[in-house]
Protein backbone atom coordinates (compact mmCIF):
# COMPACT_ATOMS: atom_id res chain seq x y z
CA UNK A 1 0.00 0.00 0.00
CA UNK A 2 1.29 3.42 -0.93
CA UNK A 3 0.14 6.60 0.89
CA UNK A 4 0.90 9.92 -0.80
CA UNK A 5 0.15 13.25 0.90
CA UNK A 6 -1.38 15.51 -1.75
CA UNK A 7 -2.47 18.39 0.49
CA UNK A 8 -1.11 19.86 3.73
CA UNK A 9 -2.58 23.32 4.10
CA UNK A 10 -3.19 24.58 7.62
CA UNK A 11 -5.20 21.85 9.31
CA UNK A 12 -6.40 20.38 6.02
CA UNK A 13 -4.94 17.12 4.80
CA UNK A 14 -5.56 14.97 1.74
CA UNK A 15 -3.99 11.60 1.11
CA UNK A 16 -3.95 9.40 -1.97
CA UNK A 17 -3.97 5.71 -1.12
CA UNK A 18 -2.91 3.17 -3.75
CA UNK A 19 -3.09 -0.60 -3.32
CA UNK A 20 -1.61 -2.50 -6.29
CA UNK A 21 -3.95 -4.77 -8.24
CA UNK A 22 -1.70 -7.79 -7.57
CA UNK A 23 -2.04 -7.23 -3.79
CA UNK A 24 -5.83 -6.96 -4.10
CA UNK A 25 -5.89 -10.16 -6.17
CA UNK A 26 -3.78 -11.95 -3.56
CA UNK A 27 -6.25 -10.94 -0.82
CA UNK A 28 -9.16 -12.05 -2.97
CA UNK A 29 -7.53 -15.43 -3.58
CA UNK A 30 -7.04 -15.88 0.17
CA UNK A 31 -10.74 -15.24 0.75
CA UNK A 32 -11.70 -17.65 -2.04
CA UNK A 33 -9.49 -20.32 -0.49
CA UNK A 34 -11.27 -19.81 2.84
CA UNK A 35 -14.74 -20.34 1.35
CA UNK A 36 -14.06 -23.01 -1.28
CA UNK A 37 -14.92 -25.89 1.09
CA UNK A 38 -18.20 -24.26 2.16
CA UNK A 39 -19.75 -23.03 -1.09
CA UNK A 40 -22.26 -25.09 -2.99
CA UNK A 41 -22.31 -24.88 -6.80
CA UNK A 42 -24.51 -27.12 -8.90
CA UNK A 43 -22.55 -29.87 -10.59
CA UNK A 44 -19.69 -29.87 -8.09
CA UNK A 45 -19.13 -31.61 -4.80
CA UNK A 46 -18.21 -29.34 -1.81
CA UNK A 47 -14.49 -28.57 -1.92
CA UNK A 48 -14.11 -29.83 -5.48
CA UNK A 49 -15.01 -26.62 -7.34
CA UNK A 50 -12.14 -25.63 -9.67
CA UNK A 51 -10.49 -22.47 -8.42
CA UNK A 52 -10.94 -20.67 -11.78
CA UNK A 53 -14.67 -21.40 -11.72
CA UNK A 54 -14.91 -20.33 -8.07
CA UNK A 55 -13.19 -17.08 -8.93
CA UNK A 56 -15.51 -16.50 -11.89
CA UNK A 57 -18.62 -16.96 -9.72
CA UNK A 58 -17.56 -15.23 -6.49
CA UNK A 59 -14.48 -13.17 -7.36
CA UNK A 60 -16.14 -9.81 -7.97
CA UNK A 61 -18.44 -9.99 -4.93
CA UNK A 62 -15.54 -10.92 -2.66
CA UNK A 63 -13.43 -8.13 -4.19
CA UNK A 64 -16.28 -5.68 -3.56
CA UNK A 65 -16.36 -6.74 0.11
CA UNK A 66 -12.59 -6.28 0.32
CA UNK A 67 -12.78 -2.79 -1.16
CA UNK A 68 -15.50 -1.79 1.33
CA UNK A 69 -13.47 -3.15 4.26
CA UNK A 70 -10.30 -1.36 3.14
CA UNK A 71 -12.06 1.96 2.58
CA UNK A 72 -13.79 1.64 5.97
CA UNK A 73 -10.80 0.54 8.05
CA UNK A 74 -7.62 1.79 6.39
CA UNK A 75 -8.11 5.57 6.93
CA UNK A 76 -8.14 5.08 10.72
CA UNK A 77 -5.05 2.90 10.52
CA UNK A 78 -3.26 5.39 8.25
CA UNK A 79 -4.06 8.40 10.47
CA UNK A 80 -2.93 6.50 13.55
CA UNK A 81 0.36 5.71 11.83
CA UNK A 82 0.80 9.38 11.00
CA UNK A 83 0.08 10.38 14.61
CA UNK A 84 -2.95 12.43 13.54
CA UNK A 85 -6.53 12.71 14.78
CA UNK A 86 -9.28 13.71 12.38
CA UNK A 87 -11.61 16.42 13.66
CA UNK A 88 -14.56 14.80 11.84
CA UNK A 89 -15.21 11.66 9.84
CA UNK A 90 -12.73 11.71 6.92
CA UNK A 91 -14.21 12.08 3.45
CA UNK A 92 -13.40 9.16 1.15
CA UNK A 93 -13.53 9.54 -2.64
CA UNK A 94 -13.13 6.81 -5.24
CA UNK A 95 -13.46 6.66 -8.99
CA UNK A 96 -16.98 7.08 -10.32
CA UNK A 97 -16.07 5.67 -13.72
CA UNK A 98 -17.93 2.38 -14.10
CA UNK A 99 -15.39 0.79 -16.43
CA UNK A 100 -12.54 1.74 -14.06
CA UNK A 101 -14.47 0.37 -11.08
CA UNK A 102 -15.08 -2.87 -12.96
CA UNK A 103 -11.34 -3.20 -13.61
CA UNK A 104 -10.66 -2.83 -9.87
CA UNK A 105 -13.19 -5.57 -9.06
CA UNK A 106 -11.53 -7.83 -11.63
CA UNK A 107 -8.06 -7.06 -10.15
CA UNK A 108 -7.07 -5.47 -13.46
CA UNK A 109 -6.38 -2.00 -11.99
CA UNK A 110 -4.91 -0.65 -8.75
CA UNK A 111 -7.35 0.35 -6.01
CA UNK A 112 -7.04 4.11 -5.53
CA UNK A 113 -8.95 6.41 -3.21
CA UNK A 114 -8.42 9.74 -1.49
CA UNK A 115 -8.86 10.58 2.17
CA UNK A 116 -9.65 14.24 2.95
CA UNK A 117 -9.81 15.45 6.56
CA UNK A 118 -8.89 18.17 9.03
CA UNK A 119 -6.53 17.33 11.84
CA UNK A 120 -7.07 18.25 15.44
CA UNK A 121 -4.21 20.66 16.14
CA UNK A 122 -1.52 19.69 18.60
CA UNK A 123 -2.15 21.59 21.83
CA UNK A 124 0.73 22.34 24.15
CA UNK A 125 -0.76 22.61 27.61
CA UNK A 126 0.12 25.75 29.53
CA UNK A 127 0.56 26.49 33.19
CA UNK A 128 -2.84 27.31 34.66
CA UNK A 129 -1.64 28.22 38.14
CA UNK A 130 -1.94 31.89 37.17
CA UNK A 131 -5.70 31.60 36.61
CA UNK A 132 -7.58 33.34 39.38
CA UNK A 133 -11.32 33.15 39.93
CA UNK A 134 -13.73 34.57 42.46
CA UNK A 135 -16.32 32.17 43.84
CA UNK A 136 -19.39 34.12 44.91
CA UNK A 137 -21.14 32.60 47.90
CA UNK A 138 -24.53 33.54 49.32
CA UNK A 139 -25.32 33.13 53.00
CA UNK A 140 -28.90 31.89 53.16
CA UNK A 141 -31.01 33.89 55.59
CA UNK A 142 -33.68 32.25 57.72
CA UNK A 143 -36.25 34.64 56.26
CA UNK A 144 -35.56 33.36 52.76
CA UNK A 145 -36.13 29.78 53.87
CA UNK A 146 -39.37 30.78 55.54
CA UNK A 147 -40.53 32.70 52.44
CA UNK A 148 -39.92 29.65 50.28
CA UNK A 149 -41.81 27.43 52.72
CA UNK A 150 -44.67 29.91 52.64
CA UNK A 151 -44.79 29.70 48.84
CA UNK A 152 -44.87 25.91 49.08
CA UNK A 153 -47.66 26.16 51.63
CA UNK A 154 -49.54 28.49 49.29
CA UNK A 155 -49.42 25.84 46.57
CA UNK A 156 -50.82 23.31 49.04
CA UNK A 157 -53.46 25.67 50.43
CA UNK A 158 -56.97 24.29 50.62
CA UNK A 159 -60.09 26.09 49.40
CA UNK A 160 -63.70 25.83 50.49
CA UNK A 161 -66.65 26.62 48.20
CA UNK A 162 -68.58 29.69 49.20
CA UNK A 163 -71.69 31.58 48.23
CA UNK A 164 -71.40 35.14 47.08
CA UNK A 165 -68.99 37.14 44.99
CA UNK A 166 -65.42 36.25 44.22
CA UNK A 167 -62.72 38.48 45.71
CA UNK A 168 -58.96 38.64 45.25
CA UNK A 169 -57.45 35.54 46.84
CA UNK A 170 -60.47 33.40 46.03
CA UNK A 171 -60.20 30.49 43.62
CA UNK A 172 -62.65 30.36 40.73
CA UNK A 173 -63.33 27.29 38.62
CA UNK A 174 -64.26 28.28 35.08
CA UNK A 175 -64.83 27.13 31.52
CA UNK A 176 -63.60 29.60 28.93
CA UNK A 177 -63.35 30.06 25.17
CA UNK A 178 -61.06 32.71 23.69
CA UNK A 179 -61.66 34.42 20.35
CA UNK A 180 -59.76 36.89 18.19
CA UNK A 181 -61.81 38.74 15.56
CA UNK A 182 -64.69 36.43 16.46
CA UNK A 183 -62.72 33.25 15.70
CA UNK A 184 -61.60 30.77 18.36
CA UNK A 185 -57.83 30.32 18.47
CA UNK A 186 -55.68 27.32 19.35
CA UNK A 187 -55.04 26.96 23.06
CA UNK A 188 -57.76 29.46 23.96
CA UNK A 189 -60.22 26.93 25.40
CA UNK A 190 -60.37 25.07 28.70
CA UNK A 191 -62.85 23.45 31.04
CA UNK A 192 -62.76 23.31 34.85
CA UNK A 193 -59.75 25.61 34.90
CA UNK A 194 -58.85 26.71 38.43
CA UNK A 195 -57.57 30.25 38.85
CA UNK A 196 -56.68 32.11 42.04
CA UNK A 197 -57.64 35.74 41.53
CA UNK A 198 -54.71 38.07 42.06
CA UNK A 199 -52.13 35.39 41.23
CA UNK A 200 -51.35 37.11 37.89
CA UNK A 201 -51.21 33.76 36.11
CA UNK A 202 -53.26 34.98 33.18
CA UNK A 203 -52.68 37.95 30.89
CA UNK A 204 -53.24 41.46 32.30
CA UNK A 205 -56.90 42.38 32.70
CA UNK A 206 -58.20 38.81 32.74
CA UNK A 207 -58.33 38.12 36.47
CA UNK A 208 -59.41 41.64 37.40
CA UNK A 209 -62.64 41.24 35.40
CA UNK A 210 -63.57 38.11 37.34
CA UNK A 211 -63.61 39.86 40.70
CA UNK A 212 -67.25 39.96 41.80
CA UNK A 213 -68.51 36.96 39.80
CA UNK A 214 -70.60 34.20 41.43
CA UNK A 215 -71.03 30.51 40.74
CA UNK A 216 -73.34 30.09 37.76
CA UNK A 217 -72.49 33.44 36.18
CA UNK A 218 -71.74 33.69 32.47
CA UNK A 219 -69.62 36.58 31.33
CA UNK A 220 -67.68 37.79 28.30
CA UNK A 221 -64.54 39.80 28.98
CA UNK A 222 -62.23 41.67 26.62
CA UNK A 223 -58.44 41.73 27.06
CA UNK A 224 -55.40 42.59 24.97
CA UNK A 225 -52.46 40.23 24.68
CA UNK A 226 -49.13 41.90 25.56
CA UNK A 227 -47.06 43.11 22.60
CA UNK A 228 -44.24 40.74 23.63
CA UNK A 229 -46.51 37.72 24.07
CA UNK A 230 -44.60 34.57 23.00
CA UNK A 231 -47.23 33.49 20.46
CA UNK A 232 -46.66 35.92 17.58
CA UNK A 233 -50.18 35.39 16.16
CA UNK A 234 -51.67 36.70 19.41
CA UNK A 235 -49.14 39.37 20.44
CA UNK A 236 -50.82 42.77 20.72
CA UNK A 237 -54.21 41.39 19.63
CA UNK A 238 -57.51 42.18 21.33
CA UNK A 239 -59.39 39.05 22.38
CA UNK A 240 -62.69 38.12 24.00
CA UNK A 241 -63.23 35.24 26.41
CA UNK A 242 -66.64 33.66 26.99
CA UNK A 243 -66.57 32.51 30.60
CA UNK A 244 -68.84 30.25 32.64
CA UNK A 245 -68.19 30.37 36.40
CA UNK A 246 -68.69 26.92 37.94
CA UNK A 247 -67.42 27.49 41.48
CA UNK A 248 -66.08 30.18 43.81
CA UNK A 249 -64.00 29.04 46.78
CA UNK A 250 -62.30 30.94 49.56
CA UNK A 251 -58.76 30.22 50.75
CA UNK A 252 -58.25 28.55 54.09
CA UNK A 253 -55.63 29.77 56.53
CA UNK A 254 -52.06 28.53 56.18
CA UNK A 255 -50.15 27.06 59.09
CA UNK A 256 -46.54 25.96 58.88
CA UNK A 257 -46.57 22.85 61.04
CA UNK A 258 -46.08 19.10 61.05
CA UNK A 259 -49.53 18.64 59.50
CA UNK A 260 -48.47 20.65 56.44
CA UNK A 261 -45.24 18.64 56.21
CA UNK A 262 -47.22 15.39 56.39
CA UNK A 263 -49.48 16.61 53.60
CA UNK A 264 -46.33 17.16 51.52
CA UNK A 265 -45.08 13.63 52.29
CA UNK A 266 -42.56 14.60 54.99
CA UNK A 267 -42.37 13.61 58.62
CA UNK A 268 -42.07 17.04 60.22
CA UNK A 269 -41.88 20.81 59.73
CA UNK A 270 -38.17 20.63 60.66
CA UNK A 271 -37.58 18.17 57.82
CA UNK A 272 -39.46 20.47 55.45
CA UNK A 273 -37.24 23.37 56.45
CA UNK A 274 -34.11 21.23 56.02
CA UNK A 275 -35.12 20.19 52.51
CA UNK A 276 -36.07 23.73 51.46
CA UNK A 277 -32.74 25.07 52.72
CA UNK A 278 -30.94 22.36 50.76
CA UNK A 279 -32.85 23.26 47.59
CA UNK A 280 -31.95 26.93 47.94
CA UNK A 281 -28.31 26.05 48.57
CA UNK A 282 -28.35 23.87 45.44
CA UNK A 283 -29.87 26.65 43.33
CA UNK A 284 -27.30 29.20 44.48
CA UNK A 285 -24.55 26.60 44.17
CA UNK A 286 -25.44 26.06 40.50
CA UNK A 287 -25.24 29.79 39.82
CA UNK A 288 -21.94 30.03 41.68
CA UNK A 289 -20.56 27.11 39.69
CA UNK A 290 -21.72 28.66 36.41
CA UNK A 291 -20.01 31.97 37.15
CA UNK A 292 -16.78 30.28 38.23
CA UNK A 293 -16.80 28.19 35.08
CA UNK A 294 -17.31 31.31 32.94
CA UNK A 295 -14.27 32.91 34.52
CA UNK A 296 -12.17 29.81 33.88
CA UNK A 297 -13.30 29.58 30.25
CA UNK A 298 -12.62 33.26 29.61
CA UNK A 299 -9.07 32.96 30.96
CA UNK A 300 -8.43 29.75 29.04
CA UNK A 301 -9.65 31.56 25.94
CA UNK A 302 -6.95 34.18 26.50
CA UNK A 303 -4.27 31.55 27.13
CA UNK A 304 -4.95 29.48 24.03
CA UNK A 305 -5.12 30.84 20.50
CA UNK A 306 -4.82 28.44 17.57
CA UNK A 307 -6.54 27.57 14.30
CA UNK A 308 -9.68 25.50 14.73
CA UNK A 309 -10.96 22.84 12.32
CA UNK A 310 -13.38 24.55 9.93
CA UNK A 311 -15.79 21.64 9.82
CA UNK A 312 -16.17 21.57 13.59
CA UNK A 313 -16.69 25.34 13.65
CA UNK A 314 -19.25 25.14 10.85
CA UNK A 315 -21.19 22.39 12.62
CA UNK A 316 -21.15 24.35 15.88
CA UNK A 317 -22.21 27.54 14.12
CA UNK A 318 -25.12 25.76 12.44
CA UNK A 319 -26.33 24.55 15.86
CA UNK A 320 -26.16 28.07 17.27
CA UNK A 321 -27.70 29.70 14.21
CA UNK A 322 -30.59 27.25 14.13
CA UNK A 323 -31.35 27.97 17.80
CA UNK A 324 -31.11 31.72 17.35
CA UNK A 325 -33.51 31.72 14.42
CA UNK A 326 -35.92 29.45 16.27
CA UNK A 327 -35.88 31.77 19.29
CA UNK A 328 -36.43 34.87 17.15
CA UNK A 329 -39.27 33.20 15.26
CA UNK A 330 -40.99 32.09 18.47
CA UNK A 331 -40.66 35.61 19.86
CA UNK A 332 -41.97 37.10 16.61
CA UNK A 333 -38.85 39.24 16.29
CA UNK A 334 -36.25 40.04 13.64
CA UNK A 335 -32.57 40.91 13.79
CA UNK A 336 -33.58 44.55 13.31
CA UNK A 337 -35.58 44.32 16.55
CA UNK A 338 -32.34 43.27 18.23
CA UNK A 339 -30.57 46.32 16.80
CA UNK A 340 -28.35 44.33 14.46
CA UNK A 341 -28.33 42.81 10.98
CA UNK A 342 -28.24 39.18 9.93
CA UNK A 343 -24.73 39.67 8.54
CA UNK A 344 -23.44 41.16 11.80
CA UNK A 345 -25.16 38.44 13.82
CA UNK A 346 -23.62 35.72 11.68
CA UNK A 347 -20.15 37.17 12.21
CA UNK A 348 -20.59 37.38 15.99
CA UNK A 349 -22.03 33.89 16.34
CA UNK A 350 -19.29 32.42 14.18
CA UNK A 351 -16.79 33.91 16.64
CA UNK A 352 -18.74 32.23 19.43
CA UNK A 353 -18.67 28.94 17.53
CA UNK A 354 -14.89 29.22 17.11
CA UNK A 355 -14.53 29.90 20.83
CA UNK A 356 -16.64 26.90 21.76
CA UNK A 357 -14.67 24.58 19.51
CA UNK A 358 -11.31 25.90 20.68
CA UNK A 359 -12.21 25.63 24.36
CA UNK A 360 -13.68 22.18 23.79
CA UNK A 361 -10.39 20.99 22.32
CA UNK A 362 -8.43 22.57 25.17
CA UNK A 363 -10.62 21.00 27.85
CA UNK A 364 -10.43 17.65 26.09
CA UNK A 365 -6.63 17.80 26.03
CA UNK A 366 -6.44 18.87 29.68
CA UNK A 367 -8.78 16.07 30.69
CA UNK A 368 -6.90 13.46 28.66
CA UNK A 369 -3.54 14.46 30.12
CA UNK A 370 -5.02 14.50 33.64
CA UNK A 371 -6.53 11.04 33.19
CA UNK A 372 -10.11 12.24 33.63
CA UNK A 373 -12.56 9.40 33.11
CA UNK A 374 -16.35 9.15 33.03
CA UNK A 375 -17.52 5.89 34.56
CA UNK A 376 -20.36 3.70 33.31
CA UNK A 377 -22.23 4.42 36.54
CA UNK A 378 -21.99 8.16 35.89
CA UNK A 379 -23.31 7.69 32.35
CA UNK A 380 -26.14 5.57 33.70
CA UNK A 381 -27.10 8.23 36.23
CA UNK A 382 -27.07 10.86 33.49
CA UNK A 383 -29.38 8.70 31.37
CA UNK A 384 -31.75 8.24 34.31
CA UNK A 385 -31.82 12.01 34.72
CA UNK A 386 -32.85 12.34 31.08
CA UNK A 387 -35.65 9.83 31.68
CA UNK A 388 -36.79 11.65 34.82
CA UNK A 389 -37.12 14.93 32.95
CA UNK A 390 -39.46 13.46 30.35
CA UNK A 391 -41.98 11.18 32.08
CA UNK A 392 -43.98 9.08 29.69
CA UNK A 393 -41.29 9.22 27.02
CA UNK A 394 -38.86 6.78 28.58
CA UNK A 395 -39.06 4.21 25.76
CA UNK A 396 -38.45 6.79 23.02
CA UNK A 397 -35.44 8.17 24.88
CA UNK A 398 -33.96 4.72 25.55
CA UNK A 399 -34.46 3.80 21.88
CA UNK A 400 -32.78 7.05 20.86
CA UNK A 401 -29.66 6.35 22.90
CA UNK A 402 -29.63 2.71 21.82
CA UNK A 403 -30.02 3.29 18.09
CA UNK A 404 -28.38 6.68 17.48
CA UNK A 405 -24.62 6.70 16.81
CA UNK A 406 -22.88 9.20 19.07
CA UNK A 407 -25.84 9.60 21.43
CA UNK A 408 -23.94 8.09 24.36
CA UNK A 409 -21.09 10.52 23.64
CA UNK A 410 -23.57 13.38 24.04
CA UNK A 411 -24.15 12.21 27.61
CA UNK A 412 -20.46 11.72 28.26
CA UNK A 413 -19.29 15.11 26.92
CA UNK A 414 -20.85 17.40 29.57
CA UNK A 415 -19.93 14.97 32.38
CA UNK A 416 -16.33 14.88 31.15
CA UNK A 417 -16.21 18.65 30.89
CA UNK A 418 -17.50 19.18 34.43
CA UNK A 419 -14.89 16.77 35.75
CA UNK A 420 -12.19 18.69 33.87
CA UNK A 421 -13.46 21.89 35.50
CA UNK A 422 -13.22 20.15 38.90
CA UNK A 423 -9.63 19.21 38.05
CA UNK A 424 -8.81 22.80 37.10
CA UNK A 425 -10.35 24.10 40.34
CA UNK A 426 -7.79 22.03 42.22
CA UNK A 427 -4.93 23.74 40.34
CA UNK A 428 -5.99 27.39 40.10
CA UNK A 429 -6.43 30.17 42.65
CA UNK A 430 -9.99 30.37 44.00
CA UNK A 431 -11.09 33.17 46.32
CA UNK A 432 -14.47 33.00 48.04
CA UNK A 433 -16.52 36.17 48.25
CA UNK A 434 -19.76 36.55 50.17
CA UNK A 435 -22.40 38.34 48.08
CA UNK A 436 -26.10 39.02 48.22
CA UNK A 437 -28.48 36.85 46.21
CA UNK A 438 -29.17 39.90 44.01
CA UNK A 439 -25.47 40.15 43.15
CA UNK A 440 -25.22 36.44 42.45
CA UNK A 441 -28.26 36.36 40.18
CA UNK A 442 -27.44 39.60 38.35
CA UNK A 443 -26.99 39.25 34.59
CA UNK A 444 -23.28 40.03 34.35
CA UNK A 445 -22.51 40.41 30.66
CA UNK A 446 -18.86 40.89 31.43
CA UNK A 447 -18.70 37.19 32.35
CA UNK A 448 -20.46 35.99 29.26
CA UNK A 449 -17.31 35.71 27.20
CA UNK A 450 -15.90 38.16 24.72
CA UNK A 451 -17.48 36.44 21.73
CA UNK A 452 -20.90 36.51 23.35
CA UNK A 453 -20.83 40.11 24.58
CA UNK A 454 -22.07 41.61 21.35
CA UNK A 455 -24.50 38.81 20.53
CA UNK A 456 -27.80 40.36 19.48
CA UNK A 457 -30.20 38.09 21.34
CA UNK A 458 -28.65 38.28 24.79
CA UNK A 459 -31.30 36.15 26.40
CA UNK A 460 -30.90 33.31 23.91
CA UNK A 461 -29.35 30.08 25.05
CA UNK A 462 -26.61 30.26 22.45
CA UNK A 463 -25.33 33.56 23.79
CA UNK A 464 -24.69 32.27 27.27
CA UNK A 465 -21.05 32.04 28.19
CA UNK A 466 -21.81 28.77 29.85
CA UNK A 467 -22.48 27.47 26.33
CA UNK A 468 -18.87 28.21 25.37
CA UNK A 469 -18.28 24.54 26.08
CA UNK A 470 -16.62 22.69 23.24
CA UNK A 471 -19.24 20.03 22.83
CA UNK A 472 -23.01 20.34 22.83
CA UNK A 473 -25.02 17.50 24.30
CA UNK A 474 -27.19 16.03 21.56
CA UNK A 475 -30.09 15.07 23.71
CA UNK A 476 -33.18 13.64 22.05
CA UNK A 477 -35.45 16.25 20.59
CA UNK A 478 -38.32 15.47 22.92
CA UNK A 479 -40.61 18.10 24.29
CA UNK A 480 -40.99 18.20 28.04
CA UNK A 481 -44.62 17.81 29.13
CA UNK A 482 -46.24 21.19 29.62
CA UNK A 483 -46.63 22.14 33.26
CA UNK A 484 -49.98 23.71 32.50
CA UNK A 485 -52.67 23.02 29.96
CA UNK A 486 -52.29 24.54 26.53
CA UNK A 487 -55.36 26.64 27.14
CA UNK A 488 -53.78 28.08 30.25
CA UNK A 489 -50.64 28.89 28.28
CA UNK A 490 -52.62 30.96 25.79
CA UNK A 491 -54.55 32.89 28.39
CA UNK A 492 -51.68 33.43 30.79
Describe what this molecule looks like in 3D.
InterPro entries: PPIase_dom_sf, PPIase_FKBP_dom, Trig_fac, Trigger_fac_C, Trigger_fac_C_sf, Trigger_fac_ribosome-bd_bac, Trigger_fac_ribosome-bd_sf, Trigger_fact/SurA_dom_sf. Keywords: Cell cycle, Cell division, Chaperone, Cytoplasm, Isomerase, Rotamase. This is Trigger factor. By secondary structure, the protein is an alpha+beta fold. It has helices at residues 21-35, 51-82, 98-105, 142-155, 258-263, 269-303, 310-331, 342-370, 376-389, 394-403, 407-425, 437-441, 450-453, 486-491, and strands at residues 2-9, 12-19, 91-94, 111-118, 132-138, 159-161, 171-180, 183-196, 218-224, 238-251, 429-435. The strands form three sheets. Strands 6, 7, 8, 9 and 10 form a five-stranded antiparallel β-sheet that branches. Strands 1-2-4-3 form a four-stranded antiparallel β-sheet. Strands 5-11 form a two-stranded parallel sheet. A hairpin with a 2-residue loop joins strand 7 (171-180) and strand 8. Helix 7 crosses helix 8 and helix 9 (376-389) crosses helix 11 (407-425). The chain is elongated and about 100 Å long. The chain starts with a strand and ends with a helix. Residues 445-492 have low confidence and may be disordered.
Amino acid sequence: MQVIETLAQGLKRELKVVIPAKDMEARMNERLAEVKDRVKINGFRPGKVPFAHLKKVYGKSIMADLVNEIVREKPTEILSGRGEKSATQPEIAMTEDESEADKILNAEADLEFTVAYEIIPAIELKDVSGIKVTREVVEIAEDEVNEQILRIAESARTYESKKGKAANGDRVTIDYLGKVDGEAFDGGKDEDAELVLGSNRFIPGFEEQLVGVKAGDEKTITVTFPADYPAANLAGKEATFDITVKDVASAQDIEINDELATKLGLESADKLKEIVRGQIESQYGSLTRQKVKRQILDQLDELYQFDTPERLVEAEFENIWRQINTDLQQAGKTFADEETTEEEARAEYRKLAERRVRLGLVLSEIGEKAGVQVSDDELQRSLFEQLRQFPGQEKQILDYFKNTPGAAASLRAPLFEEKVVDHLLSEISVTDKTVSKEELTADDEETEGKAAKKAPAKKKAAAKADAAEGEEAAAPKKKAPAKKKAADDSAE
